[in-house]
Specification:
Blueprint lengths: L1 H7 L6 E5 L6 H9 L3 E7 L2 H13 L7 E5 L5 H7 L5 E7 L4 H5 L25 H7 L2 H12 L4 H11 L5 H11 L8 H5 L10 H12 L1 H15 E11 L2 H16 L18 E3 L9 H6 L7 E7 L15
Parallel strand pairs: 1-2, 1-4, 2-3, 4-5
Antiparallel strand pairs: 5-7, 6-7
Helix pairs in contact: 1-2, 7-8, 7-11, 8-9, 12-13
Bound molecules: S-adenosylmethionine.
S-adenosylmethionine (SAM) binds next to helix 2 and strand 2.
């Protein structure tokens, strides 16, 4: 959703924009080209992504004083800004989840379509791997991960099958164990399962997502990052958050609702009595979705849900109605 991100950030004040999930630098590049008054601080917890983004922007002659990169997890944002003497930022972007590069490199172990090691770490210097989860967790704990982070209906059956198959050695073996555990009748259309380019109907899709989220502590880190981002933004600064699954989007939506009301819990439609102060205003009611053209060009974008907001000056009332959302 590059065009939507650029459009949302068009009117931000001059200053530093933090791209907290810089990946290959696609969004960073588009923002630098569209907005002459900003510089970008690009973070990624994957060191390989930082190298790639740096190379890509060098090729485009955009790697100059207007861009800097840092191998860092987004929940260290506040400390990083302090260490760089950056008092406030004018934009904040998070394009969550894994990158196509991470999925496509077999050796990273993210894909159920190829045969790689059980790794799935976004940051290869971190300690917990998919092998630790798959071969080390208690059956109950594993079932909880699958149910909670993958919304997997057959979590218990799958966890039992994984435990019986231990030690599971590779992503292909794991995908096969999961596929066998899911009742045949519950698989989506046989066509999508057979099509190697389609991941939608694959019985291992939800379990792989869940294990990846567990390995990378994605939801906890997201929860810890969002308040830091809103705090760091200057008035009129903007934030854009792109989520790819319901667990991520729920955290984003709940946090934005909380920030939009300042945490007010007074009865809806009555004037606020508790003195809560809104810190942001939503720019769109509900989530924006990628266009049909973007989905046709990149099927992985189809689950993207983008939410954006503007930071309010202290004491400024938001006019939005916080009742409806999706
Ligand atoms: C969907 S890709 C981003 C693609 C990027 N917008 C681009 O234009 O190339 C997600 C990237 O964010 C990184 N990432 C995910 N969660 C992160 C976090 N909490 N902190 C830092 N990096 C994160 C991943 O390692 C991955 O490289």
């Amino acid at each position: 959703m590059v065009a939507e991100v650029v459009e949302t950030m068009r009117d931000i004040p001059a200053g530093v924009v933090v791209d907290a999930t810089v990946g290959s630098g696609g969004h960073a590049e588009a923002l630098l080209e569209a907005h002459r008054e900003i510089s970008i601080l690009g973070l990624d917890r994957d060191g390989d992504a930082i190298d790639r983004a740096s190379q890509n922007l060098t090729k485009q002659n955009l790697k100059n004083s207007r861009v800097d990169f840092c191998h860092l997890r987004s929940d260290y944002l506040k400390a990083e800004l302090q260490s760089r003497n950056i008092a406030s930022i004018s934009g904040f972007l998070m394009d969550l989840g894994v990158s196509s590069e991470q999925i496509d490199i077999e050796a990273r172990g993210f894909s159920f379509r190829t045969d790689g090691p059980l790794d799935m770490r976004m940051d290869r210097t971190s300690s917990l791997t998919a092998a630790d989860v798959v071969n080390g967790y208690e059956q109950e704990q594993l079932a909880e991960v699958l149910a909670h982070y993958g919304d997997e209906r057959f979590a218990r059956k799958i966890a039992k099958a994984i435990v019986s198959a231990r030690p599971v050695q590779s992503t292909a073996q794991l995908a096969e164990v999961i596929a066998r555990a899911v009742p045949q009748s519950s698989r989506r259309g046989p066509k999508s399962f057979r099509n190697p380019r389609s991941s939608k109907g694959h019985p291992a899709r939800r379990s792989f997502q869940a294990i990846r989220i567990e390995v990378n502590e994605e939801l906890r880190i997201l929860k810890d990052t969002l308040p830091q981002a809103v705090d760091a933004l200057e008035p009129e600064g903007r934030g854009v958050l792109i989520a790819y699954h319901s667990g991520e989007d729920r955290i984003v939506k709940d946090f934005l609702r909380w920030a939009e009301t300042g945490g007010c819990e007074c009865p809806p439609k009555l004037p606020c009595q508790c003195g809560a102060v809104p810190t942001i205003k939503l720019l769109h009611r509900g989530a924006r979705k990628p266009s049909a053209t973007e989905i046709a060009a990149n099927s992985r974008s189809s689950s993207a849900r983008m939410r954006s907001f503007v930071k309010l000056a202290a004491g400024c009332e938001s006019e939005t109605n916080s009742e409806t959302d999706d």
